[in-house]
Amino acid sequence: MKTLKDTPIGETVCIVKLHGEGAVKRRIMDMGLTKGTSIYVRKRAPLGDPMEIHLRGFEMSIRGEDAAKIEVVEEGEKLWK
Questions:
Q1: What's this model's pTM, rounded to 2 decimal places?
Q2: DSSP labels for the chain?
């Protein structure tokens, strides 16, 4: 399983599944990170956390802890197996 946290800079991925429970999962979804969304990893902070991503026409930063809960595949791979 590849997560958003494992995605290298400059790569575009697509969300397959959100892991987590309750309020944490809801917060991730409220930020626009939902199944099928394409995400481009722009850069990381010097120590690797947080990371800056581009999605739905805007940039945002996400903590590594939250990025680890987002399962992704490389863009163009089959989303639903």
A1: 0.85
A2: -EEGGGPPTT-EEEEEEE---HHHHHHHHHTT--TT-EEEEEEE-TTS-SEEEEETTEEEEE-HHHHTTEEEEETTS-S--
